[in-house]
Each structure stands twice: as C-alpha cells, then as structure tokens.
Amino acid sequence: MRNDIFPASRCNILLKRLICLFILLLFSILPGTSRAGTEEKILQFWAMGSEGKLIRVLADRFEKENPEAKILVQAIPWTGAHEKLVTAVVGNLAPDICQMGTTWMPEFEAMNALEPLNSRLNLKNGLSEADFFPESIKTARQNDVLYGIPWYVDTRVFYYRSDIARSAGFNKFPETWMEMYKLCSEIVKAKRQANQPGYAFSLPINDWQIFLMFFWQAGGELFPQAGRETVLSIPEFGKTLEFLKRFIDEKLAPVAAGKDMDLLAAFESGYFPMFISGPWMISEIIRNKPALEGKWTTARMPMDKKYTSFLGGCNLVMFKGSPNRDLAWKFVDFLSRPDIQADWYELSKNLPANRLAWKDARLAQNSHMHAFREQLEDAKAPPCVPEWEQIADVLSGTMEAALFGKTPSGEAAEAANRNIARLMRVQPESMGKTAIIIAASAIFLLPLIFLVIFFRTGPGDGNRSHRTPPGMVLFFLAPAIIILVVFLFIPIVASLFASLTNWNLYGLSDPSKVNFIGFDNYRRLWEDPVFWVSLKNTLLFSLLGVPLNITLSLASALLLNRKIVKFKALFRIGFFIPVITTMVAVAVIWRWLYNPEFGVFNQILKTIGLSPLNWLSDTWLALPCLIFMAVWKGFGYNMIIYIAALQGIPESLYEAAEIDGANASQQFWHITLPMLRKTSFFVAVMTTIGYLQFFAEPYIMTGGGPLNSTISVVLYMYQHAFKFYNLGYASSIAYALFVIILAMSIIQGRIQKRLEGSV
Amino acid sequence: MIGFHLFLLASLILTLFPFVWMFSTSFKPSGEILSGTLSLIPISPTLEHYRNLFGAVNLFVNLWNSIIFSLVLTILSVILNSMAAYAFAKIQFPRRERLFALLMMTMMVPGQVTMMPVFLILKYAGLLNSFAGLIIPGSVSVFGIFLLRQFMMDIPEEILEAARIDGCSEIGIFWKIILPLSRPVIATLAVFTFIGAWNEFLWPLIIMLKESNYTLPVALANLNGQYNTDWGLLMAGSVLVVVPVILVFLTAQKHYMKGIAAGAGKE
User: Fold this and answer.
1) Which of the 8 DSSP states describes residue A341?
2) What is the ipTM of this complex?
3) Which residues of B touch A559 (CB under 8 A)?
4) Which of A615, A687, B12, B95 could form a disulfide with A594, with the two C-beta atoms 3.0–4.6 Å apart?
C-alpha cells in the first residue's frame, strides 16, 4: 500500500483522537450503581411538569421537620407522563410516591400497582376522609379500597367580562341555561350591530370535560345502573348536544374554539367575552392582562337541573413494594395539612383538596376564588373505570360529530351509548387448548418457513473473486446483526405474536391475563370504521404529499443548480433547515400560522378581501394543511439529493443537445429527466415509505381531529398502544400497514422495471 | 435575473419565517406575546425568558446528557453501521443479497410498534435508567447500513484488490481504505444520527428515571404546565435546542451534502 495515494496518516491521527474520546465517553455511560441503601430513607417523589419544580420548596420544609428523610423530587413532563408512568410500573421502576391525575387512577389500580391506604386513614388526630371534598375522595376509591389521597382539586367555572355582560343587561352571571343562552345572543346581537367581529362564548367542540358538565347539569348520568345495556341517560345526552349545538348554529360560539395563545388576547379584545376554564387562568389573566382589572370575574356554572361542573385534579398515590411506605405516608400526611395546602395554593395556584385549607385568608379573601369554592360543592368526577380514556374518546368524538352537524343529536346519543357499552363488554375468552397450540406453533413456524423460502429463492451469490474467511465476515457483521436481532427482529416477531393476543393494560402487569384470541384483532380491524378512515387519510396524504414533495424538491433543485444563482450554499442551507428542526418547535409556529383569529394565513386572506378559514378545525382543510406543512418541512432533503444527482449529469450531453438545436424544455425532457430516473426511484420509494408512516404532524398539530379527518394509521396505532394500552390490537394495525407498504414498494419496483425495459 | 433572485429570496424568507419568529418571540415579554399581533421585531426586547430558563432547568446537566447521548450514539452508530455496510458492499458471503433484502423489509414496520417489546427486553437486561439502555438499541439502523453500503459499492474493486495483493488484511482495508474514502457518507450518517438523537423526546423520557439523567428536550418539556404554557420560556428553550443542531449541520455541511446523495445513486 502506498500512503501517498491514500492520505491515511492524517486520518489516523483524527481517528485515534476519536477513539480516545469515545473510550472516555463509554465510561460515563456504564449503568449507574448509585442505588442508595435503605437506611438513608430516601423518598422518590414524582410530580408533573412545573409542579415538579415548585414542590421542592415544600419538600425542603418536610426534610427540616424530619431530618432522617431525604426527598428526591423528579419532574415528569405532562407530555408523555402517561407513557412514562405505565412503563415505569411495567419495569418495576415506580417511585415511592407519585402525583396522579384522577382519571388515571383506575388504570393503575387495574394494573395492581397502587398501595391501599385505608388502614392509614381515619386514625385519631390524623387525616380523615371527611377533610376532603366527597367527590374527590371518590376518585381515589375502588371497591371500598382507598388507593390515593386527594392532593389538589380542579374544577371549571365561567370566566366572563363583567363590563360586556353589564352592557348586555346582565348585572350578574346567569343562573340558568336559558338565561345564559339569552346573554350570549344579546352579546352577539350588540356585536353585529356595532359591526364588531367575534362571538359570545369560546366552546371547545370536542372536549369531553365540557360536554360532561352540561350533561350532568341536564340531569344526565353515566352508568346509571351497573352492567346494563344502557350505560348513559340517552334523553339527557341528546338534550345536552342539542343545547350546545345552538351556540354553534347561531354563531354564538365558533367552530374552532380559541386555544393556547389566542384565548387571552381574544378575552381582552372582547372577541370571546366568555369561556370555561380552571383556576390557573386567574393568575394568567392577572399576570398577562393587567389592563383588564375590574372588567372580568368568575362565575359558577348555570343550571338546567343542577349546577354541576367537572371535578378533576390530582391524588397522591403510593406504589406497592416501596420500601419506605411509612415515611412516604408521613409526607402525604404533611402535604395534606391545611397550612401546607394553602401554601401549595400560593405556590402553584392549585386548589386545596383539604376543605380546611379554604379558610386560609389567601383563598377566602380572593374574590375570583368564590366561584370556585361554590362550584366545588357541586362538582363531579367522571366514573372510575379503567376504560375511561376510551370512553372519553367516544364522548369527544360524539360531541364533535353532533356539533358539526354530522349526526343528529338523538342519533348521536344512541350511538354513544352503543359504543361505550361495547367498550365495557367483557374481553373475549381464551381459545381452546388445541387451538392455542396450533396458533402458537403457526406463529413461530410461519416466520421460519418464510425465512427458509426467502433465503432459498434468492439470486445467486455471483462469482467470487476471492474467498473471505468466515471469521472475517462475522467480525464485520456480528455486532450489527446481534443488536438488530435483539432490538429489531425479536421485537418485530414479538409484536406479530402480540397481534394474535388480547394483550392490554391488565396483561401488562400480569402476563397470565394475556390470552390467544386468534385472528380476532384482524377481524375487529376489518370492521373498525376508524381504521378505514385512518387508512384513507394515510393514502390521501401519500398520494398528494409524495408528488408534491418530489415536484417541489426537483423544482428547487433545478433552480438552485442554475449557473446564474449566487449564494447557492445560503439557499441550500435555508431550505434544509426545516428538515433538521425538532417537530415540537415547528408545530408551535405552524399552529400559530394556522390560527383562525390571529394567524398569518387568515390575515393575508383578510387583506385581499377573502373570508378567513378555519384551517385546522375544518374537516376538509385540516389534512391539506398538514400535507402542506409536511412538504414544507421535508422537501429540502430530497432537494439536496436532486442537486447532487444533477451535478452528476455530464455537461457534454447538454452541449451535444445544444448543437443539435434542442431548446431548454427539450433538454429537460430528454436529458435531465431520464438521467434522474434512478434518483427519482430512490426518492419516490423512500418518501412513500416515510409518508405512509405519517405520524408526527397529526400527533402534535391536531391529535387526529377534527372528526378523525387527519388521523393516520400510525397515529391510530399509537393511540391504541399508548393511550388505551390495547397493545395486541395496536400490533395488528401495524401489520396491516406493513402489508400495505410492502405491496406498494413491490408495485413501485415493478413500475421501475417496466420503465427501464421500455427505454 | 434580479427578479429570479428576488423570487428565490422570497421563498427562502417564507421557509425561514417560522424560525425568525421563534427567535423574536423568545425576546418578547409575555404580555407582548399574548397581544395577538404578529410583529417580528420585539417592541420591548427582554432576556427574562433566558434568565428564567437558567433558573428553571438544570441546563448544564441536561446539556451534558444530551451531548453524551447524541455523541456516543453517533460514534457507535458510525462504527457499527460502517462495519456491516462494508460486509454487505464488499465481502462475498452466502445469501448476502437476501439478508440485505430482509433488513430492508424491516424499514416498512412502523417503529412505534417495537417500543414496548424493546422496553421489556431492556428491563430484563437490566439496562433501564442507564445511558447504555438509551443508546444501544438505536446504535444500528437499517437505514444507516443502507446509506453507507450504497456509497461503498461505488468504491472501485481494483483498489481493494491492489491492497490485498500488497498483503493488506480485510481489517486493514476497511480501516485504511474504506473508511477514509467514505468520509462524505459517514459525515452524512453522523449528522443524521446526531440530530435525530438530539431531538428525541419519548425514548429518553421512558428510559431515564432520574432527573439528573434527562436530556434537553425532556427537561424543556417540563416547563409546560398541564393547561398553561409559558410561550416565551418555551420559545427560548426551543432556540436552545435548535441552535446546536444548526451549528452541527453548518460545520458538517460540505461533507454532508455530498454524502446525502450517495444513497440515491444506485438501487
């Protein structure tokens, strides 16, 4: 070997340095062994989001009172908290104490993860159940066993502009549904007369919490009797939908309710003089909109039959198997003390669950708090069932369909009843033993048979110019193959296996509850309308998005490849930056661009005299909006590939064509395009595979809505896997998609072969 | 000519607008962000969000974790993937093409479906809550092997033959010829892997239990309340995540652009 041909020496120095750095880094990644001894009494406490930061103040005070204790507070982001908690329980990594949303309680009880607390409560001089709001205690109880202690409560009240209500003739907030409706019509009438934009009321149309409040106010109940065909009060359900729909139909409330950033601005401008929200909003308004002081306040819900609102909040739970349960309880007890609860309110603006804390001046003398105190006496928590996430999904979907006018209210109520009843039905029984054996052996044999056939029918190995010792082959291949087998092939086969079982939340904690159900998941998939909708959306997304992406990237590559362009690198990087930026940042910005009230797109439409659109809340527009955004984010990648390919076309071809008198468009069609065929095939296949697995955009931007108009197959799978924990069903969705992608790739390959044959 | 450049510039501004807006928002006081107007230049610029950010997040620990995670993953993935790619590109062994086709097929299985099984495997291996568990499962990627193999296939066989005649071993060929010649495509893979790891959210969240092990995106997600969002803080955090990525990209840019096209040359 001659080193002057291969300047390896310089490279070697660089590589040596890299290796040193790598070894250094390797040491820092070895699994930590800093598991603390039990005598130190360390308490692991998980709290969510910003609360995980704020709780430190109280933890310090507890440590001062109890010098033997050391509290390790861990902040868990709200996004992903559910996934994090479930995986922690499955991995036996749960903390000693954790903050847990009230609607999550039943799932973790079903997983048998929580420590019963009955024996610790109602002791002399200790905490008693009577200290808490009764509805709030209910969220922590399952079959008379108490699994948590309410930490803070949360309810929803009306926020309204008292000045605007007054000019509409209301000196105080309406007490009844009919009066509230009248207030809204008066406000909107006044607006129309003054030629002002806006609505009366910001009503989210797919929010099960909002729906439940009005449903309860109408006298409705969920699960009025245990285990019957009727799981909800159908007439009241229909009546509630009918009532809410009037606000949309008469344009008292928008189809796209204000979210995020715009709500406060809209409240200030009077665009939305009323909205429903929780206690955190008080400090938000005071902090960000000081000019509104004296022009707004809060009010209890209006009634039809009752004044009921929604009760949420968080409980403190202890996990089974925690070594420091007594100390953990001491901390729970500490956090429940009235004075500490009032301090916690001051820190976090969360409402105390302990009723005694409400006597504290900081709460009692805050005029905006009165409505909350009053509302808490009549606030209801949703029923405690492990299937709650799915039921909530049905409620949101039904509300959306009815308010959009897709389904008449009465029909929607019947359908919701049917769907929820189906969810509650007992899981299918396991198959017979012989059937299991046949299924099990089939599932292990099938991949094996597939592999054997696959490897036997392959093309020949070509002529071997030299023999490489098998040891050498292993040296290069084994590390990668071992990792792929362990972390890719085995999981893939395992999930194929899972797709034939009813693996769900119960099975996660207790494997004996996982049963073979044969092809039931696939049968269910075949009959699942949402799956077909998601498939349609995915195909639509690919059919529109892939050509758009390729055209745009080819066009920009052609433009940037022209000799006259200056600052090529600048443009290349500029167009490429969206590709490398995290989706979270991109989503924030795009949601703002699509914002119906203040977004750039609607401002442009307004300036050229067109009426604004409801971009992401429109069932027809939402998917194109996401396609546009995905193409924007991704076209730079293919553009670079095309630029490189264009540079690889020999200049002589164009020179020859010019001599023959070919014009620019002829050159493009007869030289450029054919020369790019291989590149285009690669780009098309990779982009199609990527677009068929469309996930991040709808996950972050729309959550699949409105009315499932943007739900994709992978998003639907993700929801079943990590929201409802139907892991078996989720796997069957994944395999259905796999078959479709495989088929598409084969078709694309055939097309390419045919094209090659014809040229 | 000028019009053409103006057109390009306009589309560039359109493409970059969201980023400019993100930067400008991170310097606006909260009241101004929530005013409902979309001005690009902050009326009264402030550094409060950046100050708050340093107060709210243990920035240097999280930054260090992100760097370790992204860097070790990148190095490991370059080593392992290039070794496998070399075998697939230049070493003859039985059923090579079929094995490669099998690998390619796994790209069609949505990644999310393997998440729970991988988590359980890590649990049994005792690798949860460690950087090893975070890094190893992602250190070999089929796409990476594919990308490198496409490039390596174009390296002329004659060079390798000449080296073999000179008595160079397979390992020597790999080390002294293949790796140096594949520099552009390795740069591509490295940048891709680094950026992917840098932006990853759910996996580090699930694997890492201790807050002192959190990566930057996970720590930043903690800034959000359940219902309320501090937009200024979030934007300042996003700037912090995005800027290193852009820097990495810019420094590797020259190699990167060449390498990214390599995969497309051949089917």
Assistant:
1) H
2) 0.89
3) 8
4) A615
